[in-house]
Recover the amino acids of this structure.
């Protein structure tokens, strides 16, 4: 794997007061967010508006209000300019059943503007990349569900887009194919040549690959969370359980600059200042003759963030 | 880089102009269509009226040969309005059958497996997509129809000498206008029907059914109510009336000719409305 070349920055995806209605049904309601992660997760329960948001980004749906821009290209200036930059893997089954995989991918590449010979070369490359090299001369209609998902990914990346939209990429995949799909997403992320928007209702998929998350609920923004900084922050929160509590130990921790909250006689929660590591805690414990029964970093998992966002949203209603 | 190395890289080269991407749609579609040997045979059979016409041009100007067969009189004055009107019909019917065969194979596969959402997620608009598909229809139906007429007219003008061209220009104009109108109407209709009926053979059957059902229903109205206005809904009948009027301005229509034009426009408008509603990357459920 190559080192990331781009650590992100604001402007990958900017939504400003975006509202979308189908008749009297409000699908997206005043969505405002600025997302710059390398892989942006789009989370939400079924019907939250994830797919509608993606289709709006591609210009399939015309928003009633608000502005959208992808990599700094505003949607109002024309969806075609955005589609030049984007690779899209839809949620539903989508292919051309009567074509061989390589012809299908080449067709998609040429429609994106690649010259014929380059499109053919990249079609082969994309199919090998997603693991369908051996099946590239088979009709797409004869592929299994997993292979169809992979061929959808291949058509989304064949033209080398700068922004990749993956709508439920692990839908219907068995565990090993799911792992392979996530590995491909991670590989694309780590190459740093493309930003990724990954929509899913599977928290562990989002947690595994995303560094920023937009959580939607009932068409509204329930939370925007920078998972990367959340992970960094959580590293300084530690919860310890002691075998033989000792009052001097907390004084020693305070002298190291830690914030200490004693939960009960045996348990305490700490916030370590920068520069203090778990190894320092171990040394302090050893010096004071204290043994740890348990030591945990605080795990404010995505699941907790998601549930909190849903709760807060329910409260707002 | 060898393709089996399993790596991915961004494309930073030049992109083809947007107009060329419509060519991609046309090229792929034509290659798919001619993959069927049966269709290829039928397609070349559609040139028969023109080939027969070319032979007639040659024979009608080869007096010694005609005299040898003793049929010189039969070929005198063959190049009349009736000949060109008959030729038009012999071209228009195969043209419709071509539209029946080609149209559904252009749109139905894209819709039945949701490939359209992938195509329209590229820098291609819905209008561009329809124009591309219409381009395929025009590209394939034009040679055995108006292009063939143009060739035949040119040959006859060349062999008949000066004056024939200008005296009979109306026949050529009638063929050009008539065929272009007919191709437009049947192409849009076949694309629209295939956008609704997503199975290729069912769409083909539906197209034939529409043509014959409208003809039969119009005829039934004419019979029952003892009128000629029933033909207003008949697509083929309307086209015949329009072309007959172009061929011969003195032709007496059963009703004002603008009504037949309106019928054709109605079919075009209806087809466009269906295409606008059905050819979307994703259906909007309200």
């Amino acid at each position: 794997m190559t080192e990331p070349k781009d650590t992100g920055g604001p402007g990958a995806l900017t939504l400003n007061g975006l509202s979308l209605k189908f008749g009297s049904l409000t699908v997206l309601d005043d969505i405002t967010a600025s997302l710059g992660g390398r892989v942006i997760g789009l989370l939400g329960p079924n019907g939250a508006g994830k797919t509608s948001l993606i289709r709006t980004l591609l210009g399939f749906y015309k928003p009633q209000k608000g502005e959208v821009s992808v990599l700094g290209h505003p949607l109002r200036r024309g969806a075609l300019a955005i589609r030049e930059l984007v690779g899209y893997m839809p949620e539903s089954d989508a292919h051309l059943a009567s074509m061989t995989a390589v012809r299908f991918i080449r067709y998609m590449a040429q429609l994106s503007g690649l010259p014929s010979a380059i499109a053919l070369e990249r079609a082969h490359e994309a199919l090998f990349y997603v693991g369908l090299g051996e099946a590239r001369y088979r009709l797409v209609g004869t592929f299994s569900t997993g292979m169809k998902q992979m061929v959808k990914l291949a058509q989304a990346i064949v033209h080398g887009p700068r922004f990749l939209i993956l709508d439920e990429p692990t839908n219907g995949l068995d565990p090993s194919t799911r792992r392979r799909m996530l590995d491909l997403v991670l590989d694309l992320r780590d190459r740093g040549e493309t930003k990724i928007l990954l929509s899913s209702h599977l928290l562990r998929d989002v947690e595994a690959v995303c560094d920023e998350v937009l959580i939607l609920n009932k068409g509204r923004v329930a939370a925007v969370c920078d998972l990367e900084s959340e992970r960094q922050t959580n590293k300084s929160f530690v919860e310890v359980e002691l075998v033989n509590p000792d009052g001097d130990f907390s004084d020693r921790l305070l002298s190291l600059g830690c914030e200490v909250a004693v939960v009960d006689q045996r348990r305490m929660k700490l916030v370590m200042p920068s520069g203090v590591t778990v190894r320092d805690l171990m040394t302090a414990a050893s010096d004071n003759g204290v043994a740890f029964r348990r030591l945990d970093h605080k795990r404010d998992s995505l699941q907790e963030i998601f549930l909190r966002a849903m709760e807060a949203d329910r409260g707002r209603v | 880089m060898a393709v089996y190395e399993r790596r991915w890289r961004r494309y930073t080269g030049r992109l083809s102009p947007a107009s060329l991407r419509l060519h991609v749609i046309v090229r792929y579609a034509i290659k798919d269509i001619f993959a069927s040997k049966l269709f290829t045979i039928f397609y070349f059979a559609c040139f028969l009226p023109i080939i027969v016409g070319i032979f007639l041009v040659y024979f009608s100007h080869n007096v010694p040969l005609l005299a040898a067969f003793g049929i010189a009189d039969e070929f005198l004055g063959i190049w009349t309005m009736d000949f060109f009107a008959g030729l038009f019909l012999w071209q228009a019917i195969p043209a419709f059958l071509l539209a029946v065969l080609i149209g559904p194979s252009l749109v139905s596969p894209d819709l039945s497996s949701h490939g359209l959402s992938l195509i329209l997620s590229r820098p291609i608009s819905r209008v561009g997509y329809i124009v591309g598909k219409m381009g395929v229809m025009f590209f394939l139906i034009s040679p055995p129809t108006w292009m063939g007429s143009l060739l035949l007219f040119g040959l006859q003008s060349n062999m008949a000498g000066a004056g024939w061209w200008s005296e009979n220009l109306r026949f050529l104009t009638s063929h050009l206008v008539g065929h272009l109108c007919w191709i437009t109407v049947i192409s849009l209709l076949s694309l629209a029907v295939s956008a609704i009926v997503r199975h290729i053979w069912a769409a083909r059957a539906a197209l034939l059914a529409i043509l014959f059902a409208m003809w039969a229903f119009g005829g039934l109205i004419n019979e029952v109510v003892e009128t000629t206005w029933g033909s207003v809904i008949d697509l083929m009948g309307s086209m015949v009336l329009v072309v007959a009027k172009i061929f011969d301005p003195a032709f007496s229509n059963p009703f004002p000719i603008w009504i037949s034009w309106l019928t054709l426009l109605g079919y075009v408008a209806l087809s466009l409305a269906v295409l606008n509603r059905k050819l979307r990357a994703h259906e909007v459920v309200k």
